[in-house]
Write a structure and sequence with these properties.
Layout: H1 2-8, E1 33-36, E2 43-44, E3 56-57, H2 61-76, H3 92-100, E4 118-121, E5 124-126, H4 136-144, E6 150-153, E7 160-163, H5 176-180, E8 186-188, E9 201-206, E10 215-221, E11 224-230, H6 243-247, E12 262-265, E13 268-271, H7 274-288, E14 292-296, H8 302-315, E15 321-322, H9 331-337, H10 348-351, E16 354-358, H11 362-365, H12 367-380, E17 383-388, E18 400-403, H13 409-419, H14 430-442, E19 448-452, H15 458-467, E20 470-473, H16 480-485, E21 492-493, E22 497-498, H17 505-514, E23 519-523, H18 527-530, H19 534-543, E24 546-551, E25 563-566, E26 575-578, E27 583-587, H20 600-610, H21 620-630, H22 639-642, E28 647-648, H23 675-678, E29 696-705, H24 711-715, E30 727-730, H25 732-738, E31 745-750, E32 753-761, E33 769-774, E34 789-794
Parallel strand pairs: 14-15, 14-23, 16-17, 16-19, 17-18, 19-20, 23-24, 24-25, 29-33, 30-32
Antiparallel strand pairs: 1-2, 1-3, 4-5, 5-8, 6-7, 9-10, 10-11, 12-13, 12-25, 21-22, 26-27, 27-28, 29-34, 30-33, 31-32, 31-34
Length: 799
């Protein structure tokens, strides 16, 4: 478009409504009018494509008069409240009024008035008097996030932005409209009246609150984060942020945050000096020796993960290191699934003719990926297929969807391998085969990206190879891929090199419980809340002889700790993380660490030295150099090369050093016949229940991680209202058979464990299945085993 082409000639054309991220231009504000030779009327530069030989004038008298008229009309009703407006000092309307406006006002009539400001949502205030009707926020809601909640109401001079029946605008991405607004009409409730542009500094970093790893700008005043903005990166986040990343910074200022080392004395955790805490930690781990184990959480940096596994393997002689929540991905699968030729970049979604989402709902697990897939469908006509246990937010735009029973992802993947004709796989009979055939019919050979999550299966490799497709994993943790590649898995060292077989997370839990393991080292991990079998984890940690934790808060796991090191927030860290598509990105400290918090990489270096494992590492660049020396496909990488935009290791020459594993050609261990129960017929619904009686029945339990079921929402005041209560999602046929209605309280029981939940009836839930939320602060679904049959009764009833 002309407005973009002009930038290459250092010519600025003013705009209000134009924003390339929103899609096709609408020419709503008319601010970008220009004069084109051969066309009698002025044209909008935002919606006029460039043509060879075109001659355009941007500052003729006609153009100036039109631009001044547009600015004058915009200011007719716009309040002159710049001194008290949050947008003052960084407002495009101020800049354009100064640069392209008439410089005077002829208006003497009263301005239009609205009630101001009013809450558009609990996080956003709207001042309708300031709105210039640029449509940006409405277009984002309808065309990008596709929640379709915002709309323009009334007509003419009375038009305003709002929602149907003034309902609160609550959606996972709605904070983006604050940044999109070119005036002060939409402001952040958390940032209102906190700072002026001349009071603040900006610092760039990477958000590690989920696997999206969005690039962010931290607005800092007086060494405190006051807001988080998007730092556009087309290869990672497309310039968008979810509300978790935008408002989750508040957890860093929580009063409950641990800011000093804690050591257990007399049965209580009490503040201690770093020397005392390090000595106590070293003594506890030294005593356990090879009977120690480590769990490295997904928010850890590559450097932290590398140093933690080095302490276990080199200083303690233990092979028990894991960074996964469930059964670990072994080396034989990790290598073929991460092969450079099979690894998709995020931007590959834009060019794909078909996308398969299997085993995950990106809206909850990797939110920005949800927007990217919607963009591919909307702009490029990409065909989408979705195969999951639970309904997803993408189902409405998918050409084909398949629902399989909880716990049978492997069976479905095996059936799909047969449906696409992968060598060594048979076409599955019956309903499983029919579902797999429907999904396979959408996939375009040579132009497909498979977005997958959950337990790994080599059938994925064979599907991708047969289709000449690429794979993009949605991992459990923000930096799960990086931690895997620096050695935080049980049977592989840095660079996925061969290593003695250790125990995975579930086996570590069992070892602590039965006494075969004595010490647990938890690095940014809360397995009691986040891992399957939460109560079992709590019992196992309680039985451990020694527990060392690195944590920001006293949580369900640290209450069992003997020593606690205070953890850094991502905005305080210096280091690197690896995006799920293989892009290494830099974490840069934007604010100082509070009180006595120290860099964790430095703490781990000192702990290693106390245990006799000198590292020779004195700085984050040296830690990265140590990683690069042991990870062949990271060889030679530096902070300078990573820079502010990151670098995919698959695009570097060192990628040729990626190991070739024996598992690359192995067949999936899940037999084709296992696909049968994946879509088995639903259990018979419970019979009719007499009035006044309690109903009971059995469903197969599935669990999922809600976007807001996390410590981020619990510890951030702005997000606390989004933290979910436990719910049980049921199909209508099952709810009818169980005598349940929407909103009923039920008890979900299995093997002596019971959870209280509220019923939600969803049309697209597979009959015979029920879904609970993992990670909730109360009634956490990880107390039950996903895939098992559970009893459901009305609250207070008998199973």
């Amino acid at each position: 478009m002309l407005v973009d082409a002009a930038k290459h000639g250092d010519v600025e054309i003013p705009v209000f409504c134009y924003e390339p991220k929103l899609g096709d231009p609408v020419g709503a504000c008319r601010m970008c009018l220009v004069e084109i030779e051969g066309i009698p009327k002025l044209q909008t530069a935002c919606s006029t494509p460039v043509r060879d030989g075109m001659v355009v004038y941007t500052r003729t008298d006609r153009v100036k008069a039109a631009q001044e008229a547009v600015v004058e009309f915009l200011l007719v009703n716009h309040p002159l409240d710049c001194p008290v407006c949050d947008k003052g000092g960084e407002c495009p309307l101020q800049d354009i009024a100064m640069g392209w406006g008439p410089g005077r006002s002829r208006v003497i009539d009263p301005k239009r008035h609205f009630q101001k400001p009013i809450p558009l949502s609990p996080l956003i205030k709207i001042d309708r008097e300031r709105c210039i009707l640029c449509y940006r926020c409405v277009r984002f809601s309808q065309e990008v996030a596709e929640d379709e909640q915002l709309q323009l109401l009334e007509r003419g001079a009375s038009t305003f932005v709002g929602t149907f029946n003034d309902r609160p605008y609550i959606a996972p991405f709605h904070g983006n409209i604050i940044e999109l607004c070119p005036v002060g009409a939409l402001t952040s409730e958390a940032y209102r009246f906190r700072a002026r542009p001349w009071d603040i500094e900006d610092a760039g970093s990477v958000c590690t609150l989920c696997p999206s790893q969005c690039n962010v700008i931290l607005t800092v005043r007086d060494e405190r984060i006051e807001r988080v903005l998007a730092r556009d990166h087309p290869e990672v986040d497309d310039g968008w942020l979810c509300d978790k990343g935008r408002f989750g910074y508040q957890m860093a200022e929580s009063e409950q945050r641990i800011t000093r080392p804690l050591v257990r004395h007399g049965g209580e955790l009490r503040p201690a000096s770093w020397d005392e805490a390090l000595e106590a930690a070293a003594a506890g781990l030294r005593q356990a020796g090879e009977r120690a184990a480590a769990i490295v959480g997904g928010q850890s940096s590559n450097e932290e993960g590398y140093l933690a596994q080095r302490i276990l393997r080199h200083a303690l002689g233990s092979a028990h290191v894991d960074s996964g929540a469930g059964s670990a991905m072994d080396r034989g699968l990790a290598i073929p699934l991460a092969r450079p030729g099979l690894s998709a970049a995020v931007s590959d979604l834009d060019a794909a003719e078909s996308i398969l989402v299997i085993g995950t709902d990106p809206l909850h697990s990797m939110p920005i990926l949800d927007l990217r897939i919607r963009k591919a469908m909307r702009r490029h006509g990409t065909r989408l297929a979705v195969a999951t246990e639970r309904p997803t937010a993408l189902d409405g735009g998918a050409e084909e969807t398949a629902r399989y029973a909880p716990g049978f992802t492997g069976g479905f993947v095996t059936a799909l391998a047969g449906a696409v004709g992968a060598e060594g796989y048979e076409r599955a009979p019956g309903e499983p085969g029919a579902d797999a055939e429907r999904i396979a019919g959408v996939l375009k050979p040579g132009s497909t990206v498979i977005v997958w999550a959950g337990e790994a299966h080599s059938a994925l490799v064979h599907c991708a190879s047969k289709l000449d497709a690429k794979l993009l994993e949605v991992p459990d943790g923000a930096n799960a891929r990086g931690l895997r590649e620096v050695g935080c898995i049980p049977d592989a060292g840095p660079g996925l090199s061969e290593a003695p077989m250790g125990r995975n997370a579930a086996e570590i839990r069992d070892g602590l419980a039965d006494g075969s393991l004595e010490a647990a080292f938890l690095v940014n991990a809360d397995p009691v809340r986040d891992f399957p079998g939460g109560p079992e984890w709590s019992e196992a940690l309680g039985k451990a002889k020694f527990v060392l934790a690195v944590s920001m808060f006293e949580d369900a796991s640290t209450k069992h700790a003997d020593v606690v090191f205070p953890a850094e927030f991502y905005a305080e860290k210096e280091g690197t993380v690896t995006h799920p598509d293989g892009r290494l990105q830099r974490l840069r400290p934007g604010v100082p660490r509070p009180e006595d918090v120290r860099p964790i990489w430095q703490v781990l270096v000192e702990l290693s030295a106390l245990l006799g494992g000198e590292t020779g590492i004195d700085s984050p660049p040296e830690a990265l150099a140590a990683i690069a020396s042991e990870v062949p496909f990271y060889a030679g990488i530096t902070h300078e090369e990573i820079g502010g935009r990151g670098v995919r290791w698959q695009d570097r020459d060192a990628a040729s050093s990626f190991p070739s594993g024996d598992g690359a050609g192995a067949r999936d261990e899940v037999p084709v016949q296992a696909a049968e129960p994946a879509v088995r017929s639903a259990p018979e619904p419970a019979g009719n229940v007499a009035e006044g009686e309690d109903s009971g029945g059995v469903v197969r339990l599935g669990t999922y991680r809600d976007l807001w079921a996390s410590e981020v929402a619990d510890r951030s005041p702005a997000l606390r209202f989004l933290a979910p209560r436990q719910t049980l999602e049921l199909a209508p046929v099952d709810a009818d058979g169980l005598g349940l209605a929407q909103g009923d309280e039920v008890d979900v029981r299995s093997n002596g464990t019971s959870l209280r939940a509220r019923v939600i009836i969803r049309e697209r839930v597979r009959p015979g299945s029920g879904f609970l939320i993992e990670g909730t602060a109360e009634a956490n679904a990880n107390a039950l085993r996903a895939g098992e049959l559970v009893d459901v009764t009305k609250a207070g009833g008998e199973a």
